[in-house]
Amino acid sequence: MATYITEPSYTFGEYLLLPGYSSKECIPKRVDLQTPLVKFMRGEKPAISLNIPMTSAIMQAVSDDRMAIALAKEGGMSFIYGSQSIENQAQMIASVKAYRAGFVISDSNIIQDATIEDLLKLKERTGHSTVAVTSDGTANGRLLGLVTSKDYRMSRLPLTMQIKDFMTKFENLICAQQEVTLKEANDIIWENKLNCLPIIDNNQRLISMVFRKDYNFHKKNENELIDRSKRFMVGAGINTRDYAERIPALIKAGADIFCIDSSEGYSEWQKIVLEYVRKNYGDKVKIGAGNVVDGDGFRFLAQAGADFVKVGIGGGAICITREQKGIGRGQATAVIEVVKARDAYFYETGIYIPICSDGGIVHDYHMTLALAMGADFLMLGRYFARFDESPTNKININGNYMKEYWGEGSARAKNWQRYDLGEDEKMSFEEGVDSFVPYAGKLKDNVALSLSKVRSTMCNCGCLTISALQKNAKITRVSATSIIEGSAHDVLLRESRNRR
Ligand SMILES: NC(=O)c1ccc[n+]([C@@H]2O[C@H](COP(=O)([O-])OP(=O)(O)OC[C@H]3O[C@@H](n4cnc5c(N)ncnc54)[C@H](O)[C@@H]3O)[C@@H](O)[C@H]2O)c1
Questions:
Q1: Is the predicted pLDDT of residue 218 greater than 90, yes or no?
Q2: Average pLDDT value for residue range 302-321
Q3: What are the backbone dihedrals phi and psi of residue 6, each rounded to the nearest 5 degrees, phi first?
């Protein structure tokens, strides 16, 4: 007979925190959000910690090199998506590791045969008026010219005019070689009255840009997540098929940690990958595994050697695994159950394995709840997809700006053809949808606001660290009507503006 778990599984929205005693020392400014990323022995320190408990999801629509840089600046980490060629993924990792403050990877690039109409669309999408003209329209193509708003007059030029006919051609540009320091770059900008200085390599390929207007914004963020050589840290998603080629290539590119990316981690495929890493690299290479939703799955991955375990099936905003396959678990219950198994494992072995809660975060307070329930850090997809730094298009829909957001289980992501299930193509089905999310601006501002709420709640609970919150939080289930009671009710709202 099947095993029945009679207790229903719950989501974060069905829980609240009760306040604990907070002393006058307990103020948001003093809250420390540092949290372990990889396993460690009792009494020892983890080899890698995050400075904020946030990672960005292993998704095409979320985590590329630009996102990774923006998030590492704030103290978190991106896991760059693996649903792309090994070469492309390695290039993204390498570009994060090569990042130098003040040197920006160009996100507005175009080919010289494109038209003014294409240029206007690009400007609307990226919000930037300086556009690099490269041989292949990418950020690292051969630099052929530059277009700024000074180069064309909308009222005078036809929309069909080609970029090559009005751009500032390479021969007339002032550029610098990639060895230039930020100070030297800024001197060139001032001496030549430039707004932007392209940085190129020996083959005229664009490496980055330095902007005059960034001059005052190069101050170091003390929270930033850096390695021993002061380079930003970055993770990489991998699969259970081409790992023997992908892992060495990504290590060479500089990846700091891997995560096996799958909806289902309680599988022999994951054990094989973890064994491959331990056999070839010992404990030097760090690797997380998942996803699981119960203690059995956790223990399996812990014993197979995972450095962290990721929790969650079917809770992502774009995920339809539960309705397609009928597997999954309410995210709060999944976290609570896996944390129970983790704590028991820690008690037995002295090995603490961090838990990552992946999916199901809708409101900022859900982050605090997930941490209070014992997760050490969160993986967020929809949350980060809304920001300027996500890799997707910004689109105006009925006067509102939206960003595209699609699941890794959707046909759109699967077009990368990494999943050959050995079945008839007609038998394959989607586990994710293709959608839009409301555009929300800069990552930095949003993360600061979300974490200010987390810090504030932690103070209400009398906790200055995540581990104190995990030990001391008092959590209650809420009834359906108390959820209504907790929102604005029985009043007519004066304005429908989105609440910050
Ligand atoms: N967290 C979630 O709730 C969720 C749900 C659905 C999809 N996703 C995402 O969608 C993507 C696809 O997930 P998935 O679970 O379909 O991918 P997967 O590659 O883990 O599994 C796909 C299928 O391939 C099989 N397989 C795996 N390795 C194999 C190998 N070496 N040889 C032969 N067969 C092998 C698996 O058993 C499974 O049937 C991932 O990015 C995942 O994170 C996530």
A1: no
A2: 96
A3: -75, -25
Instruction: Give me ligand 1 centre to Cα 330, in Å.
Output: 20
| Domain boundary residue, one of 217, 243, 269 | 217
- Atom number in ligand 1 closest to CA 240: 28
Counting from 1 in the atom list of ligand 1, the atom nearest the Cα of 82 is 41
Looking at the CA of residue 59, tell me the nearest atom of ligand 1: 41
Tell me whether the omega of the peptide bond preceding residue 291 falls within 30 degrees of 0, making it cis.
yes
More confident residue, 105 or 445: 445
| Cβ of 262 less than 6 Å from ligand 1 | yes
Residues 227 and 172 grouped into a single domain: no
- Ligand 1 within 6 A of 431 CB? yes
Is the pLDDT at 427 greater than 90? The verdict is: no
Q: Are 290 and 301 in contact (CB under 8 A)?
A: yes
Which residues contact residue 324 at a Cβ distance below 8 angstroms, ignoring those fewer than 6 apart? 429, 430, 431
To test the pocket of ligand 1, the residue of 55, 81, 269, 320 to mutate (highest count of ligand atoms within 8 Å of its CB) is 269
Q: How many domains does the chain have?
A: 2
Mean per-residue pLDDT, 445-463: 98
Cβ 260 under 6 angstroms from ligand 1:
no
pLDDT at residue 196 tops 70: yes
Expressed as residue numbers, the domain containing 121 is 109-217
Picking from 191, 217, 243, the residue at the C-terminal end of a domain is: 217
CATH code of residue 64: 3.20.20.70
Positions marked active-site: 319, 418
Rounded to the nearest whole angstrom, what is the distance from the C-alpha of residue 248 to the centroid of ligand 1?
21
Inside any domain, residue 327: yes
Same domain as 213, residue 84: no
Q: What are phi and psi of 131, to 5 degrees?
A: -125, 130
Check whether residue 213 and residue 229 sit in a common domain.
no
ipTM metric? 0.95
pTM for this structure? 0.85
* Domain annotation covers residue 179: yes
Identify whether residues 92 and 153 lie together within a single domain.
Answer: no
- Can you give the CATH number for the domain in which 134 is found? 3.10.580.10
Determine whether the shortest distance from the Cβ of 75 to ligand 1 is under 6 A.
Answer: no
